[in-house]
Structures are given as C-alpha cells and as structure tokens.
Amino acid sequence: MLLIDLLERNAGKYPGDVALIELNPIQDDAESLEWQEYELVETGHDPHYRKELTWKEFDDLANRFANLLMGKGVKKGDKVAILLMNCVDWLPVYFGALKTGAVAVPLNFRYTADEISYCVNLADASVLIFGREFTERVSSVRGELGGVRDFIFLGMERPDYADSFEGMINGYPATKPEVAIADDDDAAIYYSSGTTGMPKAILHTQASLFSAAVTEQAHHSQQKDDVFILIPPLYHTGAKMHWFGSLMTGGRSVILKGTDPRWVIETAANESATIVWLLVPWAQDILDAIEDGRIDLGKYELSAWRLMHIGAQPVPPSLIRRWKKHFPHHDYDTNYGLSESIGPGSVHLGIENIHKVGAIGKAGHEWSTRIVGEDGVDVERGKVGELIVKGPGVMKEYYHDPEATAASLKDGWLYTGDMAMEDEDGFIFLVDRKKDVIITGGENIYPVQIEDFLRGYEKIKDVAVIGVADHRLGEIATAIISLKDGVEATEDDIRAFAEGLPRYKRPRRIIFDDIPRNPTGKIEKPKLRKKYNADSIVARETEQE
Question: Over 70: is that where the pLDDT of 465 sits?
C-alpha cells in the first residue's frame, strides 16, 4: 500500500470529516498573515483565524495539483521542490506531487538564498512551488536554478515570473491521475548535512514513507477520534511523519501557527486535542508560564489530552518530572530518528517506560538496533559505541553521493554517527555525536558554516563553533575565537559582524580563547566541549532538584 492510497481511502470513507485545520492565533506581528483567507470564529477565548479541509477536499486538492503538474509536463521521477511555511495547503501539495509519481523535495524555510539554490540544483528539481515569505530569496537566485522549468507561487503578491497556484488550481480536474506507482519507486528527498556542513540529499522510496505511517500508529496507538496538534515545520521528516499516524486512522489534525504557551494550551483545550508533539523549548516555556502564573490550568478543559510527545533533541529528565507534576495523567514518549531513517522513531522510549526517562529507548516498531565499535563488531552492554539501525524506513541513498552512501549504509545497516550505550535492561542512551552538528531547539546548526563566515572578519585568527549545554534549547551555538596578534575586538564587535548570518545561525555565546588543534591541523572540538560544558544539562538538573 502507498501513502496516497491512505488519503484516497479516507476521502472515500470519511468524506465530510475534517482532516486538517490551519489555526492562526491573533498576534501583534501580523505582517506575514493573509487575514482575508480565514474565517473569523469565536473559540471560547480569544478570536482566531481558521481554515479547514475535509478529507475529500484534501484529496480533491491533491488530485487537482497532481493534474496541474502533469499538465506542465511533470512525469514520474521528476523532482518537485516545496518551499512553504506550514499551512493547510502544504500537505495537499506534497501528496499531489506523490500522486504524479514525482519525487517531493521539501526545503527548510530557514534556508538562505544560496542554500535554496544548492538544494534545488542538487535534487535536479524541475518545479519549485514557494510562498510569499521566500520571494526575495528565490528571486535573487532564480537565474542559478537552470533545471527549474516552472515556478508556482502560493499566496498573494505573486512575482511576474511565477504562475499562481490559486489562479490555476481550479482549472484542473479532481480526478485521480492514472499513474502506475510501485513500492520501490523513488518518492521524496529530504536534506541533512555531513561533517562538512554541506547538505546531503536523502532519497526515500514510497515503501519507506508508508513504513513511517505504520511505525507512528504502532508507537502511539492513534484512533479515529484522536486529535493531533502539529506545530513543528512540515518540511522536516519529524512533524510530517508523526502526522502520518492521523493519516492511518482518518483522525483530525490542527496545524498551529505559533508556539506561544497560551496558544498551545488554548488550542489543546478548544480542539479537544489528544496528542501534542512538542520540542523541548516549547515544553519549557509552557511550564514556566504555568509556574509563574501566566497560565491558569484550571481555566481550561484538557481532559482529552492523553499524550505529551517530545522528539528532535535530547530531553532533560527534570523537564519530564516537572511536566508530570502539572499533567499527572499524561503519557509521555520520546523518539530518536534521523532523516535517513524517516522520522517517527527508529528508536523510541514507549509510553509504558517513563521510569527510563533519559534513555532514547529501544528499537522502534519493525526496527533493529546495534551498538558497534570501530571494527563494526557489537560492543558489550554498558560500553560506548556507534548506534546503527536497520528497518523499513532506511534511506535508499544519498542522492548523487555514492561515497557518502557507502560510508553510511553497510549490509542494510545505517550508521548514525551517534555514540551510545545500552544499559542492563536494553535501553539505549545517547552519549555524544561523532558529527559536530549542534541541535538547538530541535534545529540542526552546522558549525562549519558559521566558522567559515566568521573567518571573514579581519581580526579573527581562528574560530571553532561548538554546542554548549542550555537548559531550554538543549544546546546553544558557542563561538570560541582566537584573535590575530596585536588586535583587539569585543563580543559586540563579533556580534555585529555575525548579523550577516541568518538569525538562527548567529552564535549565542562568544568566548575569546586559544583554539586547540591536533598534529594534522584539525580542531580538537572534544577538548573544547569538555572545557565549556562543565555547566552541563546534568549539572543544571541537579541544581533544579
């Protein structure tokens, strides 16, 4: 079975049931919101702007977009890049691409213009659909996107070189395209990064995507009456593949455009949410708002909420203990996965294992795990090695990168690059990462990109960027800087120069110090992490308790 089969089944079985809700809480900074597209409704608290799609409307829209693409010459195996903020149209666009047999290529909405160019070209995309937030970036590199035949614009203020999604979509039929699609056909490309910091294109098959839906539903036992609150970005495997549990059951989902603690709590109450997937910073903010009196839980009906689910980064055990004090009836689960292993948990804790908070868990549904040494042989329990995983959601390859594919895929096992150990009960704990990627608030930051930029400042002799533990974000990007002899610079000088970086890549902390390098000239980042992570998450938890 394919994902598109699940959508078509839901459209036939539950045609009038609401599938997707896009919810925009009213906010002071409304410059990016298209208010006229939404119906003003009263939710019992503050007014919100809201847009809904039933399962039939969802499937019809996906079919119309598929026929639109085919009308433009898109055929099986072509690549369709998607650069959109979360919205109610995102998933129909994605499924429309899948229905043509094309390969969907979601792009990170934080990509710079150069990163957009690099990733679109790496994927060999022939179509790019994008929203208003990206017009300036796309326009600046349009001439570099030689393979893109068609630009499609979703929203208002369309640039003249792009076709209008809204203007064209109703001109195409809502009938299912007649395309033969097999389980082993290519389906989607997602982006990650190697140790150099350059994005890699991760190719998945139709079977891989479908396996994510099976895994998610097995892990969290979604039923038709479950209501899923979706907040993280849909370009990422995590958010979308967790939503696949709702696709499996025909359940309702709310795309909440905002992370303010009050919005999350109000939405959970007003929509009778049963599952909310959070990142660590958002959970921290909710707890802080409850504990300092900004949120009074007694004002909200939250009895339907059964599962608090966290992923995308290590979870401090103290956070879960705090959460259970305020929400004692909640089940809790965390998952570990990579874009290379398709999202919803090649490893997961399991709601029955809250006594093991701190572990990432055991092998997920239909997955296997091992912890191996440099020789590829399993290490003893309690010893540290590299975590490797095998299952139905392992990527097909790194697209256009056979060397990286060969280094990561061996005999069907995906080598994650993460160091881990298994305790006496078989639960896996992450210890460190081979790669230097920093995970801050669930987002990956690649130190090499920041280092290369900062080296452009004339007073800097050397620089190393590492992750330093932070109780809210998990890690923060910290720049260790060595100045050239005889010059002076302040933290403010460095921060001013770093304004040339996207905001999320700017170092949160600046430290002036020597940069240790080994005899081959490589920066010894383990030494720096050891030196500057003395105030670690574990230490902070001890203080909180």
Answer: yes
